[in-house]
Amino acid sequence: MVKSTGYKKVKTAVFISGTGSNLKSLIEFSKTKKSPISINLIVSSNSKAKGLHLGKINNIKKKVFNFKKKNKIENQILSLLKNHEIKMICLAGFMKILSRNFINKFRGKILNIHPSLLPKYKGLNTHQRALNNNEKYSGCSVHFVNSKLDSGKVILQKKVKISKNETKDSLAKKVLVQEHKLYAKAILKVFNL
Q1: Shared domain check, 120 and 101
Q2: Of the chain's two ends, which shows fewer C-beta atoms within 10 Å, N or C?
């Protein structure tokens, strides 16, 4: 365990595109004593992302970027991260794919949470695809981000049993509950806590 004396939390940015439920869990986790991170910045690819209101409530700086000119935008984000001394990035429902150049600047310091048991069901519509294939289990994975979609080294996973009358919505809800717990555990694991 890292002692609190002289120990500074690692400044972290969370990237979102939607409701921000994982962001909310990460903020709550970051405020606990055992958390090795503080959330200092919220980056969104969507100006209507519900998660943005969490920045206001928790007094966390937030910035929205329109990803039409990806290279230009990524450079702006990188300079914003530098200005805020961000050392780690957590992707939480961020619906844009970051370039290899961007990822290389933060190699080993970008985490993502994905609603499937990777390497199964990379990309979108994970719950429906799991149901279509009559899977007995689904779940979620926290992994390091590399330049291939949902292919980085898995840090932690949590299984969820698929029940008989499962729908994609009911499965999504089940998995989301586990996502909220798993992200914090994975961060502790990354920091060897």
Answers
A1: no
A2: N
In a domain, 81, yes or no: yes
The yes-or-no answer on residue 84 being catalytic is no
Query: Are 160 and 98 within one domain?
Result: no
**Average pLDDT, integer, range 28-44:** 97
Q: Is the same domain home to 98 and 120?
A: no
49-73 pLDDT, tens digit each: 999 999 999 999 999 999 899 999 9
Same domain, 145 and 75: no
Q: Which of 53, 114, 127, 180 is catalytic?
A: 114
Share of the chain above pLDDT 70, in %: 96
Percent of the chain surpassing pLDDT 90: 94
